[in-house]
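Quick one: structure for this chain?
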Amino acid sequence: TSDLSSIIASGQYENTTFVNTVLVLVSGTYANISKTSIPVKNPSIITDAELVPGGPYSLDPAIDYEVVGYEIIANVYEFLIAYNGSSNSFFPEVATVLPTVANGGISSNYLNYTFYIRHGLKFSNGDTLTVWDVYASFVRSLLFVQSTSAPSGWLLASVLLPGGGWAPGLYQNGTALYDNITRAITYNNATQTITFHLLHPSPSFLDVLAEEQCSAIMDWNWLVSHGAGIDFSPSGFIAYESFGNVGSFNTYIQTHAMGSGPYMISSYLQGQSILLTPNPYYTPIPGISGYDHKANTTVIIDYIKDAETELLMIQNGEADIAVGLPTTYYPTLSHLESSGMIKIYEFPTINLNGFGFNLNINTTMLPQLGAQYHIPRFYFDNLDVRRAFAYAFNYEEYLNDLVGNAIYGANFSIPLNGAISYGMPGYLSNSQLESLGVNVPYYNLTIAKQYLMESGEYNVSINIPAIALAGDSVNYAALGMWAQALHGIDPNIIITPMYLQFSQWIGYGVFNQNPMPIFFVGWSPDFNFPTDTLDAFYQVNGSYAPGGGLNPTILTMANQTNQSNMDVLLNQYIEDAVNTGNISQSLKYCDLANEIGINLAFYVWTQQPSMFWFYSSNLNGALNEMNPTVNSGGDTIFIYLSK
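Got it. Here's what it folds into:
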């Protein structure tokens, strides 16, 4: 009221909007808050503030395999098919129709999928999209499957190439590689069709085509003009593989994009911001809500370095969306909602978070993180050491106090006990796992010290960093809590929490090149089936296993023969789960693999988070963003939003 009085006294109230909240309480009823409207600021601009210092790893769909880059790819590029809003159904995007057995698009044995390409589509430079662009895009993704960047092309290769793309010698034999890829995918210029020839049925194949970066359709002429064309020959395929390796990327394609989607990149300040503007050549899709019109907003994505800055942006209206704010800010955000400034949307995910142990620490690179750090290369190959660390983590305090479930009275996260999250087929509770003899860790420092003493590593001096993503104050605090508990058990253990930018963290996660002894892990499942999460965390060629040294060969080098044999079995169970068409049998193999993974304590599982959208109250279309499969709602599809 003092502010209001001063404005009136000054006479400077012309064109001023006054916002008042009226609370009417009637006996026997709940109170309802009536909010006045808030003026729309910059109606043609959507500003998205994201707590992701450093921004995306790559904008190249064949390289990128993380949620930050996916957001740009999903708005700039188009896919053959796409998820329809928050539903689990698809709509044809580049394709003309969804293939089914009934319309002949899918063969009766579910091994052949044929797509007809829409006519008249154009990339944002005016080039016409043809079936050759589609074909070359998928071939390019398959050529990078065995690269050190570990991109999402493995999802295609898992059903299209022998051994999931990892058959012995396949990527060293140009003829075999060329013959297998050109057999797996064929195209027809006359009919403008592309056909995928699967080696075995896959219930998740359409999900991969609808959501994964590796399925984005790129402009072949644009690739060629920037040195990224493919020589379609056995020798050409072998030569092209190297461009998928860290340090050998085509840097222009890594930091630029040319798609046919609703938006195009107008400017990119690497690590700072991206400006998306409407693609003038975009062809709307009649009858598909959101995609039935051209984009009419400009999007600014700011990659913010600290949470306080991001909070100020959403408070003063500079940002329409706030992403990644710590739960400690929830009371302030709730107040903003009650005042009518923002809307908070909450929904469950199937995401998995935790911390990984590095069984193959690159001790030569470790000084890059700090000259004071030292640890034996194979320190975490000792199962008793990993179990000691796992029992020293306070899971309840993490969820209740650091994440904030108990403090703020909100369901930010639920406990997680392995690589199969609650809500996925095959999920087993702690009691179910324990009844099967699985060693599910819990907070107990007595047991932790016992394991450490049995390991033979008690009183062994280590001084190491433990990595959280830059801006992630919750996990940074958790690492500090964990470090204190371990130091209390053995004063020779010194652990220092450390922030790394997202791009640095993901860049270190490479086989034989990872200096991070303990590091944050997080996963937004590609599809709602546990073969995806198990592969990502445990398979020797998955997303986290290479950087974490989860490899039978590494365990054998560390004289851990029993663990090596169990890891071989774990990998075999995942292979069996992927390669059977029987879903019940597949889930049985998944459970067996998950049980081994928990027993081997390769990870400390911390939480299965819920998703929260913090949107300006003037932003419409949020309900279409809540798809748990599209990176569990963690990315925004801007064509759905308006002011």
